[in-house]
Each structure stands twice: as structure tokens, then as C-alpha cells.
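Lecture notes, part 5. Sequence design as translation. It can be helpful to think of inverse folding as translation between two languages: the language of shapes and the language of residues. The source text, in C-alpha cells, appears below.
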């Protein structure tokens, strides 16, 4: 084509304009990040759920050392990266998977839960200049003032309580401040939202009611994440104190049984509790229809059974096959903006006082632009972009959950 002076100049100007816009955007982003980080110097930030203690019991892995983000062996949380991401306080979730409801099964899971609590205490003993054990909102406030991180303890799955109610008090004495009553299968306390073996939902058991009463007496928050809809309703009725969902989202935006529907969110707000946003893509954005993936999954389920009925001898082989399936057909990846869509939904539905953050890092959590704790301030950037004020951000990041914890402690007396 012949050189044409009149068409070249506008094109050049357009390119220059695009560069200018990109430069302003980068500048805006940097200013927004600086504003978010400044807010975090004043506001206590709390994440109510991770599964990092499982990793902390592994020989050779040190939570006090920085691990490069993005590598599988790094995990998603360590103390230096908490500092980088502006996260002040974390509930270390001591998790046990569901096994048989037998004496041996209970003893096994109890030993594993205790080993993880020991690992959290070993961390605070090894790094006293960096992190302290916290059991009250006052502890977290004091530690923040001292420039230190707070380690709260939660127990994910009430399975290790077995049929021994005194175990709840034993956990309270170790500083445990919440118990997630079940995990992905029904247990001795209540039915789970994801157990597909028995279609009927039995809700909270008689023993479960005693566990809730014991938590109320001892100042332990009852965590309704993972439980079935009837279990949730039964717990709301049984509990004298507000309850939490330590890592769940809104079913209205993403129809997943692990999320709470609007009626449940209203009941939780009326109870004075709080719903903590989980960073798990499958709970944040609806999966895209994919018949090929669904057929492949069905074939695997026919071969191995579902997770609840899986042959233990073949479990590792089955897990590898399901992992390969996820690699071949990855879920739609959520972003920070999707998390804040869920926050917006709750704020519109019941107000600013009933929502918080519970990532589930090291337990399946992580979104595209916030896939480890070092990027947590990005949630604050998105809240600022949408016009949330500092007092509102303070409630979302920690004010709400600390209000609930204080109330639970006060009711225990
Ligand atoms: Zn969980």
C-alpha cells in the first residue's frame, strides 16, 4: 500500500492515547493498592478458615519461612506472606476427613486433630516475635498493636469428638474457638450438605444438640459450613449464641449445596451470626455446562463409587483419576470481583453486619487474582472500587466476626 500521511497520523495518535490510558490505569491501580494497604494499618483483618495445620504437621515444611507463591509445594499460607498480603489474624483449621463412626475411627481422628493443634502452638512458641496465640478479640487487637499476627484455632469436623461430650471441653481448654460440626459426609453430630448416600436429611442428632449446648457453655462458636439445610435450621433453633458459617457463599449467585440460600442468610442474620466468604471457584461462579466432562465424571463414579462410598483400598488410585479429570476439564476460575459480588448480595439482603472472609486456603480455596494469602489486599481494592467506606471495610474484614466471637464468649459467661 502507498504511504498515506492522512491515515498514519490518526493511527499514531490512537496508539499514543492507548499508552496514556494504560499508564493512568497503572497509576490508578498503584494508588488504589496504596490506599488499601493504608486502611489495613488501622483495620484488623481476619480470615476464618484455612487448612494449613495439616501441612504444618509435615516434617520439613516451616510456616515461618516464606514460600514462593504459585508453587504446589508452597501451599497458600505462611507467616511472611500473611504480612505481605495484610492479613492480621487467621483461624487455623484443624481438619480431619470423615471416617467410620467407630471407636477406632474416633480415636484416629482425635489424634490427628490434636497433632494439628500442637502444630499451631509449636508455631507460636517458635516465632513469638511474629505471631501470638489468640482466643479473644482483645488478644487480636493487642497483637496487632504489637505488630504481630494472631493465630486462632478452629476445628473442622466434629468427628474427633466421637461420642464423648467431654472432648468439647478438652478442645476449649486448648483454645479452640470454633467447631465445624461436620465435613463432606454425615457424622454422629449432624447431616452434611454433600453426603449423597442417604437421600433423607436427618439434621442435627440428639448427641449433636448436646454438642451445640456444650459449645454455647464453653464459648466456642458453632460453625454451620458443610452442614445440610435441616442441620442448619436445627442448629439455629438449638443455639443460644450466634453461629458462623466459616467458609460458605450465597446459593442465589451460585447454586451449590455448600452455600446458603437467602432464607438461611436471613435466619443467620436474625441469629446475629456471620457468613464468611469462601474463595472457592465452585462456590462463587456456576460451572459452565460441559457434557464431555460430565460423562467422564460419571464413568469414574461408576468405576470407583462416589467419595462417600469409595473403596478405601482403591482410594489413592481413584483420587488420582479424579485429579486428572479436574486437570483435563478445569472449573471456571472465579476472580476477586466474584467474591465481592457475593459480599454485595449479602449487604443488599441483610446489611453490612453479617458478612466476612473465610478463604479455605490450603483446603481448595483460591481465585485467579488472589490465589494465596500474599494477595489478600486485592479484596480491599475491589471493595474500594465499589465505593465501600473504611468503617464498612472494617466490619467485613474483622469487625463482624470479632463481634460474634465476643458475644459467644459473653453468653458463655
Ligand atoms: Zn471445608
Amino acid at each position: 500500500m502507498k504511504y498515506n500521511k492522512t491515515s498514519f497520523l490518526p493511527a499514531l495518535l490512537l496508539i499514543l492515547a492507548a499508552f496514556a490510558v494504560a499508564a493512568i490505569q497503572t497509576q490508578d491501580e498503584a494508588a488504589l493498592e496504596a490506599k488499601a494497604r493504608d486502611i489495613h494499618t488501622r483495620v484488623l483483618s481476619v480470615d476464618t478458615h484455612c487448612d494449613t495445620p495439616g501441612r504444618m504437621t509435615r516434617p520439613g515444611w516451616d510456616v515461618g519461612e516464606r514460600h514462593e507463591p504459585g508453587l504446589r509445594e508452597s501451599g497458600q499460607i505462611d507467616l511472611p506472606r500473611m504480612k505481605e498480603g495484610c492479613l492480621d489474624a487467621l483461624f487455623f483449621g484443624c481438619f480431619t476427613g470423615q471416617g467410620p463412626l467407630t471407636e477406632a475411627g474416633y480415636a484416629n481422628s482425635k489424634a490427628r486433630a490434636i497433632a494439628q493443634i500442637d502444630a499451631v502452638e509449636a508455631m507460636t512458641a517458635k516465632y513469638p516475635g511474629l505471631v501470638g496465640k489468640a482466643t479473644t478479640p482483645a488478644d487480636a487487637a493487642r497483637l496487632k498493636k504489637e505488630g504481630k499476627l494472631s493465630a486462632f484455632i478452629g476445628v473442622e469436623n466434629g468427628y474427633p469428638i466421637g461420642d464423648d461430650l467431654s472432648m468439647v471441653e478438652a478442645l476449649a481448654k486448648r483454645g479452640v474457638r470454633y467447631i465445624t460440626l461436620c465435613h463432606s459426609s454425615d457424622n454422629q453430630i449432624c447431616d452434611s450438605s454433600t453426603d449423597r448416600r442417604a437421600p433423607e436429611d436427618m439434621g442435627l442428632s440428639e448427641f449433636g444438640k448436646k454438642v451445640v449446648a456444650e459449645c454455647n457453655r464453653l464459648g466456642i462458636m458453632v460453625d454451620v459450613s458443610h452442614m445440610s439445610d435441616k442441620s442448619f435450621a436445627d442448629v439455629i433453633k438449638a443455639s443460644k449464641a450466634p453461629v458462623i458459617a466459616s467458609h460458605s457463599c450465597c446459593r442465589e449467585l451460585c447454586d451449590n449445596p455448600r452455600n446458603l440460600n437467602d432464607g438461611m442468610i436471613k435466619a443467620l442474620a436474625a441469629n446475629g451470626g456471620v457468613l464468611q466468604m469462601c474463595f472457592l471457584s465452585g462456590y462463587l461462579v456456576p460451572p459452565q455446562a460441559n457434557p464431555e466432562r460430565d460423562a467422564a465424571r460419571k464413568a469414574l463414579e461408576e468405576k470407583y463409587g462416589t467419595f462417600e462410598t469409595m473403596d478405601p483400598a482403591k482410594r489413592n488410585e481413584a483420587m488420582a483419576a479424579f485429579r486428572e479429570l479436574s486437570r483435563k476439564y478445569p472449573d471456571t476460575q472465579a476472580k476477586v470481583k466474584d467474591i465481592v459480588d457475593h459480599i454485595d448480595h449479602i449487604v443488599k439482603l441483610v446489611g453490612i453486619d453479617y458478612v466476612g472472609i473465610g478463604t479455605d486456603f490450603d483446603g481448595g480455596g483460591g481465585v485467579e487474582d488472589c490465589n494465596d494469602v500474599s494477595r489478600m489486599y486485592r479484596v480491599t481494592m475491589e471493595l474500594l472500587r465499589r465505593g465501600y467506606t473504611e468503617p464498612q471495610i472494617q466490619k467485613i474484614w474483622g469487625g463482624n466476626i470479632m463481634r460474634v466471637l465476643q458475644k459467644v464468649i459473653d453468653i458463655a459467661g
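The translated text above is only one of many valid answers, since several sequences can fold into similar shapes. The mean pLDDT is 94.
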